[in-house]
Each structure stands twice: as C-alpha cells, then as structure tokens.
Amino acid sequence: MTAAPPPAEAIIDLDAYRSNLATITQQVSPASLMAVVKADAYGHGLEQIVRTAVTAGVGFLGSLDIPTALAIRGLDLPDDIDVFAWLHSPQDDFAAAIESRVDLGVSTVAEVEAIAAARVQRPARLHLKIDTGLHRNGASESDWPELVRAALAAQDRGAVELRGVWTHIAEASAEEDTDAMRRFDRAIALAEGLGAVFEVRHLAASAAGFQRADSRYDLVRVGAFTYGIAPGGGIGPADLGLVPVMSLVSRVSEILSHGDQLRAVIPLGYGDGLPSELAGRASVAVRGQRYRIISVEVDRLLAEVGDGIAIGDAAVLFGSGTAGEETLQEWADATGTIGEEFVVRLGSRIPRRYVSD
Amino acid sequence: MHQFRLHEARIDLAAITHNVARSINSGGNHSAAVDVRADGYGHGAVEAARAAELGGAAHLLVSSESDAAALQDAGILLPTSVVSGEQPTLEPGLGLVPVARAYGFVGGGDWRPAMRVRARVIGVKSIAAGEGVSYGYTFRAPNATNLALVAIGYADGIDRHAGNLCGLLLRGARRPIVGRVAMNALVVDMGEDQAAVEDVAVVFGDPAEGEPSVSDWSETLGKRPSEVAANLGARLPRSRA
C-alpha cells in the first residue's frame, strides 16, 4: 500500500521568522530579545525554531518549563545561549536544570528552597518574580521582601546566584501598565536596598515591548510577534512589519452538491485542532478566492464554493495572505480569540514543512 | 499520590469496554462499529480500539488509510472503514455505537466517562476588591477573594472562551475560572476558601463522583463534547486509570 498524502501540512517559513526576529530586535534595542519557544515553539516545532533563532543571533530563549529547557540544551547550542524556565512542578529535575545552566524563574520561598536544596556543584541562576497586578504567579508585594531575603541567604551559602528580576503585565490599559511598571520599580529598589544586584530586569512581552520603550528594561520576552502573530482587534501583522511564519495548506478532497450549492470538502477537522467556531466566521482560499467555511466536523470541513474549483486544488486555511487566504489575526478576530490559540492547538500529526530561500 | 507533572488526561479503558458492551447489548444483535477517529476522540486510537474490541466491537471507523495502518501495526485485528464527516455511511448490517456512548460523554444511564482531566495548583494568593486578574483584566474582583493558579491553559486544550465562563472542581466545590485563560495556566476564584500549592483540580471527570462532566463544558462552550475531549486528550499527557 502506498502511503496516502497527509490531509494537510503546516508550512513554516523560516525566512519570515528571521525577518520578524530582526524587526523586533531593532525595535526593542538597546534591550535584548528573549525568543519564547514554549508549547513546541507555538506549534512551529521547537528544534528548527531554536536553531534558526540562535543562528540569527538570539542569545536568550524562553522555554516555559525545565523539560523543554533540557530539550533545548540537548540540541548542543553554543554555551553562551541563555535559557529561561519559569513554570515548575515539584517533580521537576532542578539539579539537571542547574547543571545545564538553565535560568529559573521563582515566585515563592518554597521554590527558592527546593532549588537551593538540589545537590549540584554550581549555583542555580534565579530570576525573582514580583506580581505587579496580573495576579497569576509572582510574589505579592507583601511577600516580596521575604522572597528576596531567602534568595540572598541562599546566595550567601553559594547555592544560588541572583541574576534577574521580572514580572508580567496585563496590557489592560496604558495607565494600568504604567502602574505595574512603577510597582516593578519599587520592588527592584526594595530588593536592591536589601543587597540584591540584578543583571537582567524584564517585564514586557510582544505588544508592550514593541510599543513602549519604557516597558523594555533590559530584556523583552517575545513569543507571538516572532511568529508573525499580531495582537488582533483589527491590527494585522503587516501593520507591525511582521510576516506570518506558518501557513496551513490542505486540498479539496471532494466536491458535494447540495441543492444548487457546491460544497468543497477539506479533510481537516476539529480532530486536527481546528475549532468548530470557524464555521460561518472564517474562510479558506482556493485559487486565490475566499470561500466561507460552513461546518467543521471531526475530520473534515465544508466550504461553500462556486464553479471553477476542482478536486485536488490547494486549499489555504491561514497564512501570510499572499494566496488570498486570511491571516491568523482575521481568524482570531472573527472567532473571538487570539492567533496563538490556533497554532498551539494544531494537531501534531499535521506535518511541519520548513521552507527557506 | 498524584504522579503527573502538572496536568493529565487519565483514560479509563474499562469504561470504554463497558460502554461499548452495554450499547451493543441494548441495540440488538447486529455487528457494531466503534468510531476511533480524532485519535479515539483524545483517548488514544489504539487503546480505545483495544478496549472497544474487548467490549464486543466488530469494526472500527477511522479517517484515513494511514490511521487504519497504524491500528494494524499496533496489532489491532478488527476490520476498519475509512469514513468522513459527522454521520458516516456504514456498510449494510453494521450498527454504530454512538460516540457519546462509547466514550461516556452522556450522563446517567450507567454510561461511564472514560476521561478525567486534572491539573495541579501551582500558586495561591489573595486579592482586594477591585483588583484585576490575568491579561486584559477581564475579571475584576467585586470583593476581596482568594485565587488559585492552576497549571493548565489553552496550549493544553482548554478553550480560551472558558475564561469567566467554566469552572473546575477544587477543594470540594466548583470554582469559576476568572479572567482570561492563558497559554499554560488559568486562575480560579476560591472565594472565602483557600487552596494550597500541590492541590489537584478536576477540569472534568465523573459526575457520579461530583465532578464536572465533559458535557458541562461542551454545553457552556456551545460545542460538541467530542470536540472538547479530543482537544484536551490530544494535547495532555495521558495516563491509564
């Protein structure tokens, strides 16, 4: 039996990724860029994205967690590449992370102590997190002095090395982000008053880092924008000088007649991670024309089409727009979400194909 | 002890076997097909196929020849049919075990849910009235309250629309998700109760044990339970009950 072609492929344009890295690097300069590669590089494939980022000169990678950080270290990158992990399970191998020089984000005294207790020769490199209003992790202002003191005590024992201080902001409004920055400044000043010295201060992610110079501090953590995923709300990637990196391309597998209507069958469905709310809200491009998706089923979707399309035609679901297709921003705006949700959800059985000039 | 790292989908294969057998017994004596598309709707196609075979299934439905070959390679000997769409056309004489029954998406009537999704609490804090939670501050606390940060997010298959809409079972009560679901975490409102780091929250599981059901989620989100389960099961580490 010959292998059937896959129902679709995700084409990853590494030139677009490099172009976005260059645009963002220039925009955030003199702050540095941390390229965030969590969630399998937002569904784009960890290894290829990491290698491309490092070759392009990115010196800091954000991995989310220790297993991903260790996978990155397993790629045998140059020694001076920094890798940052910040979401920990008590089951994580802190010793392996420290040995592999993974920078660790910490929010609580318990985390500092668990890390300091790892039996390794080298000190763990810590970034202390303050909660400046997002109310996810990060130490509350009232717990902050205790966290700083615990880290300093562990540093005096040689178990850790304080390297960074960081937070996340809500991007609810410019005023509230400014308030968060002032809380961040106060937390830094308080920690410095207790004797802490921070080499890297970081607060901003894609949107704030791109727009607000005062949010950049020493380092900006950018995920979505590096993949050409715009924030939405009408703002597309081209408005920011970014190029979408992923295109999802399938083909017309069948054409059905329904009364006087023609419906193209595309062999991708919610089993591949495409949400059913695309039905009636988004389109697929065939031969440069957009056709409305009318239903998303387990393993196929239906689009209402006109004459002049044929079985086997390429069907572009999302991409950079050059083949007439919608961008992720348009899909996201139409379905009330953000572009990231589509790419991280895309089934692992859809092959990723890397292209580059 | 909870062995999983941060979150998991625990699959009860005996529940699939039970549900398939029960559906076949209640549906007459025809030969029955079980649908294992979408990686067994997130339960694992190979494992679900084996469990279905034990329950008396005579046939399996898949989306492609390569999915059929994968089952064969795993040693599944049942015949397969490649079908597509929501109401696949079956060969004459073949009955279909409805997906909602096979995987226990339907409540009551002794159908047993086959997937339980759980995640760890990784942070707790208290906030004052008026303070916001998560990106965009789409939730602002009307009163002082306690929050728990749970390590599961939209990259794990939680629908981003679940923010300010759905809830998790934690410390004996349903706790609403407040604010936006992030890529790797979400926040629930504990009210006057306190959670602790290391607690385990149930996203959905067995309503007979007081847990939310997959149907609670799908009804709130306005989508099929099969889509909710397929999304989470595809992304989360899976373990066997």
CATH architecture term of the largest domain in chain B: Beta Barrel
What percent of residues of chain A are in strands? 15-25%
Number of helical runs of chain B?
7
Order of strands across the biggest sheet of chain A?
A: 11-12-15-14-13-16-10-1-17
Total domain modules of chain B: 2
* CATH class descriptor of the largest domain in chain A: Alpha Beta
Q: Which fold name fills CATH's third level, the topology of the largest domain in chain B?
A: Lyase, Ornithine Decarboxylase, Chain A, domain 1
Q: What's the end-to-end separation of chain A, in Å? A: 34 Å
H/E topology pattern of chain B: EHEHHEHEEHEEEEEEEEHHE
The helix/strand series of chain A, from N terminus to C terminus, equals EHEHHEHEHEHEHEHEHEEEEEEEEHHE
Q: Give the uncertain stretches of chain A in residue-range form.
A: none
Given helix and strand content, the structural type of chain B is: alpha/beta
Main sheet overview of chain A: 9 strands, mixed
- Low-pLDDT regions of chain B: none
The interface involving the most residues is between: A-B, 52 and 53 residues
What does this structure look like?
The complex is a heterodimer of chains A (357) and B (241). Chain A is of the alpha/beta class and 357 residues long. Chain A folds into 2 domains: 31-227, Alanine racemase (TIM Barrel, Alpha-Beta Barrel); 246-355, Lyase, Ornithine Decarboxylase, Chain A, domain 1, CATH 2.40.37.10. Chain A has helices at 14-28, 38-42, 46-55, 66-73, 94-99, 109-116, 144-156, 174-193, 206-211, 328-335, 339-345; strands spanning 8-13, 32-36, 60-64, 82-85, 102-106, 124-129, 160-166, 200-202, 219-222, 246-251, 254-258, 261-266, 283-286, 289-296, 301-305, 314-318, 352-355. The mean pLDDT of chain B is 95. Chain B is 25% helix and 27% strand. In chain B, strand 3 (59-62), helix 4 and strand 4 form a beta-alpha-beta unit. In chain B, helix 1 crosses helix 3 and helix 6 (214-221) packs across helix 7. Chain B has 7 helices and 14 strands. With 241 residues, chain B is an alpha/beta fold. Chain B folds into 2 domains: 12-102, Alanine racemase (TIM Barrel); 115-240, Beta Barrel (Lyase, Ornithine Decarboxylase, Chain A, domain 1), CATH 2.40.37.10. At the A-B interface, helix 11 of A face helix 2, helix 4, strand 6, strand 7 and helix 7 of B.
